[in-house]
Amino acid sequence: MKTLHSLLLSAVAAAALAGCAGTMRTAAPVPQAMPGGSPIAAGKTEVLWLGQAAVRITTPGGKVIMIDPWLTSNPKTPANWKQLSALGKVDAILVTHAHFDHLADAPALAKMHNVPVYGPAGMNQTLATYGILPAELAPRFGKGGTIMPWGPTGPKITAVRAEHSSELAHKDAAGKDIVLPGGEPVGFIVEMENGFKVWHMGDTGVFGDMRLIGEMYRPDVVLLPIGNHFVMSPQDAAMAMRDMVRPKYAIPIHYGTIPQLRGTPAEFIAAMGTSSSVRVLVPDPGQKYDF
User: With b meaning 16 or more CB within 10 Å and e meaning fewer, what string describes 267-290?
Assistant: First the structure.
């Protein structure tokens, strides 16, 4: 029987091999290998991780939704993705909270494509009030609300609770560093045209209503922070996935970018144990999965 150590090594090796295939893919997507060797069936929802919490989702209907775009100065973003133009078309931008490593490139990206940034109402009020974004590109949106930017048959986006902070660091007209209100942090449930659901948790600690959100929305994929210090530890994240949310797939994000974010996917996999039905996917930055 394989030891836990050998299982962990196999999982990390499988993830690394999948990452090499994902970053080089330029033609038709190839199903990626999961830790443990099981393939992901080819499908129509594409999830591309670009380091930290930056995720690009392409829906079955071809809508491109960029979440928490910190790319140009992100040390974990691959060089070929650091130019915002590399993202191609963008139809909407979601920002979970006002911290730099989530909001940084959102204003520039919104202006480049003339598309709205959907985020916490308080954050967007600040963006508009201080001229960081024009009001029409910073619509207000709150927890529990669902928006349908492309009508009732298009993707639906619901803001849900996250347990974190959301201050907005900015420079005033004189170049002095100031801190502005950033509203309350959120996560997003993105429901595709075919009903497939992705929950981007943003930055969060564990909270009891994760179970309620899981029961209400039944996400297929959860993107969850595991870095510790500012967000969940790998052990807390595993407990939340295994015992509370129970999605089909869990993708760890928001780790390894700075020394404080010391949690690792290997720790997360070990904490998940072997009895859970949740499949853990561990992409490299620049790798995409298709569902």
Answer: bbbbbbeeeeeebbbbbbbbbbbb
Residue with tokens 């994240």: 237
Whole-model pTM: value is 0.85
Treating both helix axes as pointing N-terminal to C-terminal, what angle do 4-24 and 265-272 enclose, rounded to 10 degrees? 130
Tens-level pLDDT at each residue, the chain (291 residues)? 434 344 333 443 344 334 333 333 322 333 343 443 334 444 589 999 999 999 999 999 999 999 999 999 999 999 999 999 999 999 999 999 999 999 999 999 999 999 999 999 999 999 999 999 999 999 999 999 999 999 999 999 999 999 999 999 999 889 999 999 999 999 999 999 999 999 999 999 999 999 999 999 999 999 999 999 999 999 999 999 999 999 999 999 999 999 999 999 999 999 999 888 999 999 999 999 999
Nearest alpha-carbon partner for 50 in 66, 61, 34, 63: 66
CA distances from 112 to 92, 116, 137, 230 (A): 12, 11, 11, 31
d(CA 287, CA 29): 11
Domains within the chain, CATH numbers bracketed? 38-283 (3.60.15.10)
DSSP structure string for 236-275: HHHHIIIIII--SEEEEES-SSSTT----HHHHHHHH-SS
- Please name the helix (run of DSSP H) or strand (run of DSSP E) that holds residue 287, with its range, or none: none
The span from the CA of 40 to the CA of 242, in Å, is 20
